[in-house]
Amino acid sequence: MAEARAAPAEAPVAANEEPPLSDVLSAYRTMVIARVMDERCLTLQRQGRIGFYVPMQGQEAAQVGCAWALAEEDWIFPAYRELGVALARGIPIPLLINQFFGNSGDEIKGRQMPNHYGYRRFRFVTASSPVGTQISHAVGAAMAARLRKDPIVTVSFFGDGTTSSNDFHAALNFAGVFQAPSIFFCQNNQWAISLPREKQTRSATLAEKAAAYGFPGVVVDGMDFRAVYRAVAEARTRALAGGGPTLIEAQVYRLGPHSTSDDPRRYRSDAELAEWRDRDPVARLKQELHEAGALTEENDRAIWEAAKEEIARAVEAAEKLPSVDPLSIFDDVYAQRTPSLEEQRAGLQRELAAGGEPKR
Amino acid sequence: MAEARAAPAEAPVAANEEPPLSDVLSAYRTMVIARVMDERCLTLQRQGRIGFYVPMQGQEAAQVGCAWALAEEDWIFPAYRELGVALARGIPIPLLINQFFGNSGDEIKGRQMPNHYGYRRFRFVTASSPVGTQISHAVGAAMAARLRKDPIVTVSFFGDGTTSSNDFHAALNFAGVFQAPSIFFCQNNQWAISLPREKQTRSATLAEKAAAYGFPGVVVDGMDFRAVYRAVAEARTRALAGGGPTLIEAQVYRLGPHSTSDDPRRYRSDAELAEWRDRDPVARLKQELHEAGALTEENDRAIWEAAKEEIARAVEAAEKLPSVDPLSIFDDVYAQRTPSLEEQRAGLQRELAAGGEPKR
Amino acid sequence: MTELTLVQAINRGLQQAMHDDADVVMLGEDIGLNGGVFRATDGLQKEFGAERVIDTPLSETGIVGTAVGMALYGLKPVPEIQFQDFIYPAFDQIVSEVAKFRYRSGGQYPCHLVIRSPYGGGVKGGLYHSQSAEAYFAHTAGLKVVIPSTPADAKGLLLSSIYDEDPVLFFEPKRIYRAVSGEVPDGDHRVPLGVAKVVREGTDLSLFAYGAMVHPALQAAETLASDGPSVEVVDLRTLSPLDEKAVLASVEKTGRAVIVHEAPRFCGYGAELAALFAEKALFSLKAPVARVTGYDTPFPYALEHLYLPNAARIVAAVRTTMAAG
Amino acid sequence: MTELTLVQAINRGLQQAMHDDADVVMLGEDIGLNGGVFRATDGLQKEFGAERVIDTPLSETGIVGTAVGMALYGLKPVPEIQFQDFIYPAFDQIVSEVAKFRYRSGGQYPCHLVIRSPYGGGVKGGLYHSQSAEAYFAHTAGLKVVIPSTPADAKGLLLSSIYDEDPVLFFEPKRIYRAVSGEVPDGDHRVPLGVAKVVREGTDLSLFAYGAMVHPALQAAETLASDGPSVEVVDLRTLSPLDEKAVLASVEKTGRAVIVHEAPRFCGYGAELAALFAEKALFSLKAPVARVTGYDTPFPYALEHLYLPNAARIVAAVRTTMAAG
Ligand SMILES: Cc1ncc(C[n+]2csc(CCOP(=O)(O)OP(=O)(O)O)c2C)c(N)n1
Ligand SMILES: Cc1ncc(C[n+]2csc(CCOP(=O)(O)OP(=O)(O)O)c2C)c(N)n1
Ligand SMILES: [Mg+2]
Ligand SMILES: [Mg+2]
Questions:
Q1: CB < 8 Å from C in window 129-188 of A
Q2: Per-residue model confidence as pLDDT tens digits over B32-72
């Protein structure tokens, strides 16, 4: 773990935090599920069964490693690529699959594109598409938690490109000034759609941007589950001790396209891809567990099989669910429907009664 | 000059740039004019003769020192507190005074509050009130100039508070990535209205924020005319040589209120003020010139008297000028008035013909 | 009851909420030690501490974004934007996040906060200290927009906004912060959102206004009272959701409508009212609907007295409308 | 003449301008090497170089702010915002700077740039890849707002916008980027700004639409043609400045108006049209003015087919209007 500490840490940090081996095995299982689910969803999109998908292959260790170092009570502010975090949080697979289908089992009522989910009971805040906005939210929630004396941290997830956003700047500055117990987890996957990391900003690392806000920034190998875990655990301990925020740059790679609308062959080389494929974070953790004697080939096969099966079941179930209630369009704009929304709703109701749904 | 170089300078820099003594005397004269004009305008506002005023006392050396190191062809992107820069640029005093009165001699047609002026022929871009927006403009203009192969730099002026703005972040990042020939001149006058510098951001200096964008940041004593001149000259040479942008933090103090609407006694101590008053940049340069044998007490008195007289004349003349043409409200919204604006204009014309102007 | 100016009423409303509910927090530029550039938050940091009345760095993006995070966590933040003209750096947070959080989360994440900001002209503020930006927010589904015109309403609508479950943009007519005063109920005084108020009854023509413009509207109605038409004045108070029933009732009664606001006319808030009449009250209309508004230009400095609607201009519009049918 | 899709026509327009005028530069996210996420700028970086077709960091604030600086210096920048939904981080630059530069400088600093951005629904984009934000900009004095509906207009209006002296917000109906194609004049084809077009003549009712909605409007008119009323369809093309004369002429002729847009209704662009009719054509109106628009909600994902106006809904509104008077 290369460190680009911007400012001296001010609070005692528990050194050498390490997850127990059994925990790591279970994290590995989560990474496998993420990988399998990701591939399955890309296929579903190609088959036209879901409308869109944002894959995250290559970022499993960073995401699961980060989530693993957090407490259940900590609040997560994700972007749209955080499947590994969602799974690590314990969000049930069927809930996620239903969201991708936008069906009546989707707890957010088919309102958003796939990948833009969130569940209050898992303290996993609903994502939006505009990049960066969640970073300020995480700072505000951290300040609110401290005001209420809740011993938690908040964690925002965002990419290398998002360091250029307005909210990155505003949020990190507020966090520094107010010493918010918040961790900024930047997955530098080397690309913002077609823009490579080195054209995004001229600083040598992204982590060193923390110095501009007066708190530590850390670079970590995001392909290394344990390294990520340690960096996050350390940052969390510091934050809870009143030592303020940390920016963590996890260096990873987006092995797939930006989204199913993207064709990365237009802007990046096969050679680069191949190089990073060799550093596959899932394979790496498997190897480590194998070497530690915690995982046999047979067990591993079982893990992959179980993942595939669980996901297949969820997909099958999802496709049987009816679509969302048409009249739900008018709900949740406000706590109560306004008279004008009632009128618009009645209009749609009449339309549906008269002519049936227009074709999609 | 304390340096907080963030990244190594990459282009050759002419060392030890120094203004000739005769030039410094003329700069001193400009600083005196700024000081006198500032005091006069505060009085005019208190007397209700102009509507508002933003004083700049304490920032004379920084502003005039910076402007003095630039070429006439360089473009200035000011905020609202840059009287010293305007005078150094050669903008005639009556033009500025007329702007404060918003009368028919105001070339921007009474459109803006006092201090929000700009003159294309002086490459001094018209200021707006929202802080920071001009910083991006300066970067764009620098890129445009380079595209046209014009050997100039652009300079944006802004305060310590403005380092928190969206545009500070966006502009410095673009400048770093595109190596724009642009100088970011931050006058850290220790306050953003009532917010002290240390609550604005947690970084030790503002200059070090440049590191986040991959270019040099420099701290300079803004009460020292020569130090400012040198820092700007160096940055300019580097920019023209293709060495990219520089962030300069001139440490100064706002001796007066934020504006005539502000009462600084609510938030800062007399002791702090007194301490900085002792470092008065105008007095300091006078002393230096005196020691160099370039200025006698008598000459100095003449300089102050001449400044007072010139300003008095301009005020007197300004008060005799008629107010702006009422129908000019509708000009310059677009290059041509739209039919709808013509209609609105005709309406006002009828109103004025019928009842005279409503009272102000 | 206490006689207060409008800005004092705001201050008392904030104090009341902060006193009654520990979840209420405020954040903004210069609101703490300095008490706000208009003194709307005067004394509150002293009373409630710097953890609840927070002086922030100079970033509207950060102010609103941070407030959103606090709201999601369960607090009731009341961020201040120093001038409405400076709300645009926070526009993304307001339009993309504040307005859409409840909807996009299927109701899981309400985002109850009140963004307070002084708006409008009449203070010699020029282009950037005079704007009336209400239409942008009224057009944004998921937001409520409230503008008071009297001290009692200012306090009552503010307290209702703070306790409302939805995000509210609360715009304060800075021009009458001190120029208007009146009796304000003590304690937890509430005025319901979404309810317009007929502030003057009349039979021949309805004047619709809000905020600072209610006062010249009333003045115009008075001027006309002696020999002219009988003019009704409706103070909208909540711009979104609009009290459609009340405005339609007035126009159906009088058959004539003149709409007044400071903002530019084109696609301004008045357009929605006029559209509503053209849609739902067309056959009641005896005369064309008129709008007395700011011109379709930026807000000028030296000529603001000509830019702003005033009683004389409203009187003229009423006369023209009466003459037209 | 060449048969092109709408997005190809945009591409040719950009190419033409960059070829003819060295001052034209483009900047935005993914517009260079990648050719834009919709391929609108495909091939242009290769042809004109990375100094004139600039891939920028991920900051709309920076994109527009930088473009403003270029425009002040004398270039003709054409910044792209990847989706109109992401224009809000640049809102301050657009509303405070782009719109007001000429005015606040007394005419010294025109700010001629064209902000291109795909807008609208119908691509399964959910809340943040479907918005129609035109009303915000139409309400902002100093901006022009242009929305084409056909490939020929797309090229011609784009070229006119690039050579216009004022800042133009040029919104492209992404839903019909590829779904609509047609003959497009080669070379420096211009279609004047500020001129609406009657795309179908009729005598009983006027349909007003722009962008993607022109097509269902035409479809509705066709559907009604056999036995129903004779419907005129007016394509606004330039939303601001509005071609008032043309729209008033149409409504004075037919006496009935139905306005169609995708954006939410409340304070949407349609309100201004309806208000205009209530003000200047009241006595020509035989029936209430109707608006067929998106609902006053954020833009939904799974139910977008119900959210978006379509021909059937327009037909129903026309029938209701005809029945009403
Ligand atoms: C404000 C905004 N502008 C543009 C976009 C379009 N867009 C979506 S993702 C993306 C790149 C994000 O890159 P990064 O932050 O590195 O995250 P990654 O997608 O690589 O995980 C862009 C430009 C957006 N979502 N929001
Ligand atoms: C976007 C924006 N927000 C708020 C304001 C109100 N305001 C005017 S000046 C100022 C403080 C600026 O501080 P600084 O950048 O240090 O410059 P200084 O005034 O000290 O020269 C504030 C908050 C503004 N003009 N623009
Ligand atoms: Mg990335
Ligand atoms: Mg300052």
A1: 130, 133, 135-145, 147-148, 154, 166-167, 169-171, 173-174, 177-178
A2: 999 999 999 999 999 999 999 999 999 999 999 999 999 99
Place of tokens 């990155």: A168
Classify strands D181-184 and D2-5 as parallel, antiparallel or unpaired. Answer: antiparallel
CA A134 to chain centre: 12
CATH topology match: C2-184 vs C197-324: yes
Alpha helices in B179-256 (DSSP H): 197-200, 225-240
Domain B2-323 has what CATH class? alpha beta
Residue-level pLDDT at A21: 84
Q: Tell me what pLDDT residue D268 has.
A: 98
pTM over 0.95: yes
What's the fold here for domain C2-184?
Rossmann fold (3.40.50)
Q: How far is the CA of D169 from the centre of ligand 3 (A)?
A: 29
- The tokens for A174 are 């507020």
ipTM (interface pTM) = 0.97
| Banded model confidence at residue B1, pLDDT cuts 50, 70, 90 | very low
Mean pLDDT value of segment C212-234: 97
For a mutational test of ligand 2's pocket, the pick from C31, C58, C91, i.e. the residue with the most ligand atoms closer than 8 A to its C-beta, is: C58
Query: Which residue of chain B has the CA closest to A244?
Result: B202
Domain boundaries, chain C: 2-184, 197-324
Residue nearest to atom 19 of ligand 1 (CA): A192
Rounded to whole angstroms, the Cα distance separating B215 from B10 reads: 9
| Other beta carbons less than 10 A from residue C1's beta carbon | 10
* Whether residue B80 lies in the annotated active site: no
How many whole angstroms separate alpha carbon A313 and alpha carbon A291? 33
Task: Note if A258 is an active site residue.
Answer: yes
Point out the residue among B176, B209, B215 whose CB comes nearest to the CB of A212: B209
Task: State the pLDDT at residue A358.
Answer: 63
Short-list C171, C175, C151, CA closest to C161: C171
Of A111, A137, A147, nearest to C103 by CB-CB distance is: A111
D199-229: pLDDT as tens digits:
999 999 999 999 999 999 999 999 999 989 9
The CA A191 to ligand 1 mean position distance, Å, reads 9
Residue-wise pLDDT for C155-197, tens only, equals: 999 999 999 999 999 999 999 999 999 999 999 999 999 999 9
Q: For the segment C2-12, what is each residue's pLDDT rounded down to a tens digit?
A: 999 999 999 99
| Strand positions, DSSP E, chain A | 75-77, 154-159, 182-188, 191-192, 195-196, 217-221, 246-251
Q: How far apart are CA A196 and CA D29, in angstroms?
A: 11
Mean pLDDT in order along chain A per 10 residues (360 residues): 35 58 94 98 97 98 98 98 98 98 97 98 98 98 98 98 98 98 98 98 98 98 97 98 98 98 96 97 97 96 98 98 97 98 98 76
Compute the average pLDDT of residues D175-194.
98
Task: Please tell me the distance between residue C213's alpha carbon and the centre of ligand 1 in angstroms.
Answer: 43
Nearest to A181 by CA among A244, A125, A249: A244
Cα C200 to its chain centre, rounded Å, is 19
Q: Where are the domains of chain B?
A: 2-323, 325-360
CATH of D197-324, one of 3.40.50.300, 3.40.190.10, 3.40.140.20, 3.40.50.920: 3.40.50.920
Q: Give the residue from C1, C174, A110, B349 showing the smallest Cα distance to D304.
A: A110
**Strands (DSSP E) found in chain C:** 2-5, 24-28, 53-55, 76-79, 114-119, 144-146, 168-173, 181-184, 197-200, 205-209, 231-235, 238-240, 257-264, 290-294
Return the structure tokens found at A135: 């970073």
Chain B residues inside the 8 Å CB shell of D165:
334-335
Cα separation, D261 vs D222, whole angstroms: 18
Nearest alpha-carbon partner for D206 in D242, D226, D227, D231: D231
